[in-house]
Write a structure and sequence with these properties.
The chain is an all-beta fold. The chain has one domain (about 10-185): Jelly Rolls (Sandwich). It contains no helices and twelve strands. The chain has strands at about 10-15, 25, 40, 65, 85-90, 90-95, 100-110, 120-125, 130-135, 145-150, 160-170, 175-185. Strands 1, 3, 4, 7, 10 and 12 form a six-stranded antiparallel β-sheet that branches. A hairpin with a 3-residue loop joins strand 8 (about 120-125) and strand 9 (about 130-135). The radius of gyration is 17 Å and the shape is globular.
């Protein structure tokens, strides 16, 4: 007799499509150094400079988390400047078993004046803090385009955690934009 295994779909533990205000906290540690382009939730305005930098559309709906939502008179008017900006999720209580993952749509866009000191990072803060995803800048033009990523956060099983998104213009005055949408934590 044959046994057919059926895949069990992941169970959603927590999700946020960012269409309504759900207690995301900008600069949660009070240590951000960016002077412009701070994370906020809202309907972003598109910017271009040698291609798309800040995307004017969200993955779903009209709102996302974005660094400096307004376009301004030029692509660099409200981009990230002067250091790090961060935004933190409300508390997420994780189950004590299963394979736990955080998934999100994201982009990091920068001009050719960027470097590997610039970044987009995702951290999980619980009993400890760890970086679960990172994209570094480079000295080349990178246009904004939505991508989907998933990171294993099973090490935090049974804890109440927060998800932190960071973007940094850490290499001097480079053109840098970032966005996040559709954040979800699942258990398999």
């Amino acid at each position: 007799m044959w046994t057919i295994a059926t895949a069990v779909p992941p169970q959603t533990v927590w999700s946020d499509d960012l269409e309504s205000a759900t207690a995301w906290t900008a600069n949660p540690s009070g240590t951000d150094t960016a002077t412009l382009g701070l994370w906020e939730r809202g309907d972003p305005e598109a910017t271009t400079s040698s291609g798309n930098k800040q995307l004017g559309t969200a993955v779903s709906g009209s709102n996302d988390l974005v660094t400096g939502r307004l376009a301004g008179a030029s692509a660099g008017a409200y981009d990230v400047d002067g250091g790090i900006t961060s935004i933190q999720s409300p508390p997420v209580t994780l189950p004590s078993s299963g394979v736990l993952r955080v998934s999100f749509s994201w982009y990091l866009a920068h001009g050719s004046n960027s470097s590997s000191a610039d970044f987009f990072r995702v951290k999980v803060v619980g009993g400890t803090t760890s970086t679960v995803f990172q994209q570094l800048g480079a000295a080349s033009d990178r246009d904004g385009a939505w991508a989907a990523s998933t990171a294993d956060i099973s090490a935090y099983a049974g804890q109440t955690v927060r998800i932190v998104f960071e973007a940094a213009d850490a290499s001097g005055a480079s053109l840098l934009e970032a966005g996040v949408d559709d954040v979800k934590v699942t258990r398999q």
